[in-house]
Amino acid sequence: MGKLLDVKGLETRFFTQDGIVHAVNGISYTLDEGETLAIVGESGCGKSVGVMSLLRLIPQPPGKITAGEVWFDGKDLLKMSDEDIRQVRGNRIAMVFQDPMTSLNPVLTIGFQLSEALMLHMGLDKAAARKRCVELLEMVGIPQANNRLDDYPHQFSGGMRQRVMIAMGLSCNPQLLIADEPTTALDVTIQAQIAELVKRLRDEIGMAIIWITHDLGVVAGLANRVIVMYAGFIVEEATVKELYGNPRHPYTVGLLGSLPRLDEARAHRLTSIEGLPPDLIDLPKGCPFYARCHYRIDRCATENPNLEPVAPGHRIACWVDVTKFRLGGNGAGQEVAR
Hints:
This protein is of the alpha/beta class. It is 30% helix and 24% strand. It has helices spanning 47-54, 82-88, 100-103, 110-121, 126-139, 145-148, 158-170, 188-205, 216-219, 240-245, 250-257, 323-326, and strands at 3-16, 19-32, 36-40, 63-72, 75-76, 93-96, 176-180, 208-213, 225-230, 233-239, 308-311, 314-316. An 8-stranded mixed sheet has the order 6-7-8-3-9-10-12-11, with helices on both faces. Strands 2-1-4-5 form a 4-stranded antiparallel sheet. Helix 4 (110-121) packs across helix 5 (126-139) and helix 7 packs parallel to helix 8 (188-205). The model is unreliable at 327-332 (pLDDT under 50).
């Protein structure tokens, strides 16, 4: 598989009356063709802003992409003209947003909204676009698709609206689908159905996926690789198997500790991460996780570590080797050799 997306040093700021919000702070990662990458972290960590920056969907002002490169199929998306980037959005890179009710126009029919991209990007006439819309709704599991095209968004349930959004994203056969917390507003049964639907469509179509979520439980059966973000930084990156089996950053350890486990013989007490994320207007000088970390050492307060490899395909931004604690260390911070 070839490399499809290459993000280098992406920085996004919001210039507000209270100060400059450092929303995304120099993140770098790659995505291969057909790969599924999950980006996880709690609310406000920069997940959504990071992917919206790829497509230049940040409102300006107050937002601004202040640094970085986003290479997609040999071209830097950040240097494209407005007309060229519009040809990429919805066509070669599609995005499914968190709340379908705010993404769908309430006064336009589902059929009209689905066919718009088909006529714009693929040059179909109304009859051909309508036929394709029926195929798309059937593909995402909406029954009696032909009869539902003239319905309005309020006539669909939450899960069905999200299926419509996925159909809209897939309408032009994109190379990359970005799903921004697409199951957050749905109950757990519908969440599982949507995740299975996306997996099936990925395998059928062969597209790459970036899946944004704060729920590590959804990620396990869906993604190939996981990026963990905190305060606008990437703090850990690994394959799904490696991340769940051998988490190396204290924040990742805390996230996994808060998940209920069904694969253990004895129940364990769920843990929580005490405190709050740092103020993105006034980021600390050292590691952004310092104030909440149980493994911190003095160096953490003054130096923010770079994202460095600790194993093949596994990178962390941390001065401390947390595996020493899981293996029965003495409880004092032990610095990673760099």
